[in-house]
Structure formats: C-alpha cells, structure tokens
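Let us work through a complete example step by step.
Step 1: write down the sequence.
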Amino acid sequence: MPRLGIPQALFFDWHGTLADTFEAMYRAVEEMLPQLGALGLEARLQRPGGARLPEHEALVAHVRAHRSLPPEVKQARRISRTEIFEILFGADADAKHAAHDAFDRCYARHVGAVHPFESGVRAMLGRLRAAGLRTGLLTNRRRALFSGELRRVDGSGWEDLFDVLVCGDDVPRRKPAPDMVLRGLEVLGLRAGPAVWFIGDSTTDVIAARQAGVRAIFYNGAKWDPLQLVRIFPPEHPPDAITGDFSALEMLALPPRR
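Step 2: predict the structure and record it as tokens.
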C-alpha cells in the first residue's frame, strides 16, 4: 500500500464504511422502485446502451422490467442506494434527486438497529483523534434520519467522535458531486489537498473526493476481488489507495511508533 503522507483530517462515509445499514437500505429501495411510474421516473431510466458496465446494463433492464433489484444484487449487498440511482439515472440530476427523496420516505419506515461495519470502529476513531487528526462524516442520508442512527450505533452513539457532520440535505448536490466534501472543508477551515482524506466504500465516494481535490481512499469492505476493483472505477477517477480493513487504514494514516 502506498505511503501518502500524514493527513490532517479524515472524512468517512457512513453506510457500508463505518456502519452496516444494508437491511433497512435494501428494504427501502425495494419499496421505492415500484413507485417509479407514479414519481415520473420510469421514462427517465437510462436507455439501453447508456450504462458503463454490462452488469449496470443488466440492473437497469431488470428494474425496467420488474421494478425491483436483481436477486444477485440484493444477495451480494455490495452497492449502495446512491450507486443504484447513479446506474439507473446516469447524469439526470433531477431524477436522482427525486429518487433520493422517495427513498428517504421509505427508509424512515424501515430504519432499525445500526451496527459498526467492523468491530472496534469506535476505538479506531478515538485513536485517530488522540493522534491529533480531525475527523468528519459525510453521508448522503437525510439529517433527520442520520441523527437517530448516529445516536444508536454500537449501543452507545458516536456523536462525540466527529468534528463535522455533513448530510445529504445540507448541500445542493449529494455525492458523487464534491459539495459534501467541500462543505466539510469549509466548516473545519481546511484547504483541499493531499492532507485531507475521504474514506468510503463506493465509486461515488471516490469520485466526490477526486472532484473536491482530496485523497480518495477506497474501503473495500465488500471484498471486491482485484479484477473487479480494476473494472468498477471510472478510468478518470481511480482511488489514491485501497484498504481492506481499518487496521490497514490506521497504519496508512498514523506515523509508525519509534
């Protein structure tokens, strides 16, 4: 893994990175997809041939035909609702905004227990902060929904572990736009550059980081194999580093003890 220098601040994604909310997320997506027609989004699905990868084409085709996710996508639990909406609607920002709003209404009916994605997340965040690093959390989730999850996670809540929280309804555009990263920088009084890292589990996190001018660290919690990793990132937006767990991230971020 490359040495990237010592960061000043680490921004983290929420779902699929620090926390596991897959069950509620997929239930909400499955409730929302049958509403595509009523929402006026059916005709705004990407047309055949518009997706970047064959598996993305298959996902769009299945949603168009069945108004549900392909069984293999639900079983794998590797992609987030943001990635799903990026695949379904491409560059149509208005359609994605409407899809996110509909998802939020559904998600509120399914949100439940929130667990750390890895054991020891609270301790890791504490060690990073003890080393003098600023920490932030950037999530596409609506603040009213996210605040409750942050209070419940790990049975104790993690409100004290972050210097800045930016949610999907705090900025004009959700990830993969850079708005959330830029808002986090603004709140902390930091400049974009290699001393700020954004750690997330999706291509949308990587794209947001790169467009904002900070380090993009891909957290491979879904355990994509190397051949898959080569394919999933747009060529113009590769991550600066890939970490398979938070122990590796700590080694990357903190200087070795002497």
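Step 3: interpret the result. The mean pLDDT is 93.
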